[in-house]
Write a structure and sequence with these properties.
The chain is of the alpha+beta class and 318 residues long. Among the domains are: 168 residues, Conserved hypothetical protein from pyrococcus furiosus pfu- 392566-001, ParB domain, CATH 3.90.1530; 54 residues, no CATH class. The protein is built from 11 helices and 14 strands. Helix 1 packs across helix 3 and helix 6 crosses helix 9. The longest helix is centred in the first third of the chain and has 21 residues.
Length: 318
């Protein structure tokens, strides 16, 4: 009997990277290199075929962008910070006295204030539209200042559960659909009787090291350098509030006296030199200029954090 030849064309194709979400991309202020890299690495393959079309549109926008930068030079340095209304002082004091707040904002002097959304310098380039639409439904009827305090500066917020998998005795993997998942540090911990129950390998435990995994601080917070305000955390909440018509929001302000030393090297991928020195950096209001943004199908991502301990045990000369 003749041996049947395999038909390679009949083998099932395996799709790769099909999970996606709708993304708003502020491309008008990006460089051509950024755009090419973003479409190539972050968007679905069918979006990357639009490369030339997107670059041509970007080129057509540049005269308008340059004119905007000229006409609004210095606008980012005219931000007025208003005081929180006095009737909310007790709520603010309660937050300030919380130990979690003190630890989260321990590196710089902080205060609370009310700022105009449109004048906030924004380092982000992209908006997750699915997440923003979810927030918009929540925020649509929450316009009172007490509601804005809960949304923007409360220490609590709704967060997705974190998944955990122990892949080896010394390796733990944590994951979340929220990209704010992060390693929060490890510290020497004084042993308690309860800790001894976790001494899986027996012996006589004398010390423990504890590692923390979780999310960043809940409050919307900004860096203030003179009168320039740079958004540090809470971008999607700020965007969603602006989308429902809120113009001013309460925030936690981290006051920077020397930006060369105290300001982070990068915020959302943009270097501090740009965020501090540009006469007219990207502002929150730019995301609401229809022609400045394009909508893409971006690859769905989740955040994974791996904690692994490495131990070296040797006999050495004393």
């Amino acid at each position: 009997m003749a041996k049947r030849k395999s038909d390679k064309s009949s083998k099932p194709a395996i799709s790769l990277g099909t999970s996606s979400y709708e993304q708003r991309y502020l491309y008008a202020f990006a460089t051509q290199g950024e755009i090419v890299n973003h479409l190539r690495t972050q968007a679905l393959e069918e979006e990357s075929v639009r490369m030339q079309e997107v670059l041509q549109s970007w080129q057509a926008l540049q005269s308008r962008v340059q004119e905007l930068m000229k006409n609004e030079a210095g606008a980012a340095d005219l931000t007025v910070v208003e005081n929180i209304p006095k009737e909310h002082n007790e709520f603010i004091k309660e937050i300030e006295s919380d130990s979690l707040f003190k630890k989260t904002f321990s590196l710089l002097p902080t205060n609370f204030g009310v700022i105009e959304i449109d004048r906030i310098t924004a380092a982000q380039r992209t908006v997750n539209l699915a997440y923003v639409n979810h927030l918009i439904e929540q925020f649509r009827k929450k316009r009172a200042f007490s509601d804005l305090l809960d949304i923007c500066v409360s220490l609590e917020r709704e967060m997705p559960p974190i998944q955990h998998l122990e892949v080896a005795n010394n390796t733990h993997v944590f994951s979340s659909p929220n990209l704010d998942l992060r390693f929060l540090g490890s510290f020497l911990k004084k042993l308690t009787p309860v800790d001894l129950e976790f001494a899986a390998m027996g012996g006589l435990p004398a010390a423990a090291v504890i590692a923390f995994i979780g999310y960043g601080g809940a409050p919307v917070n900004v860096f203030r350098v003179n009168n320039r305000i740079v958004l540090n955390n809470g971008f999607h909440r700020v965007y969603a509030l602006r989308a429902v018509g809120v113009t001013k929001i309460p925030v936690v302000i981290q006051n920077v006296s020397n930006w060369q030393l105290e300001f982070p090297a990068q915020v959302a991928g943009l270097p501090r030199e740009y965020l501090m020195s540009a006469q007219r950096p990207v502002l929150m209001k730019d995301f609401f200029e229809p022609e400045f943004c394009i909508t893409l199908r971006a690859k769905q991502r989740m955040k994974a954090v791996t904690i692994q301990t490495s131990v070296g045990q040797f006999d050495i000369p004393s």
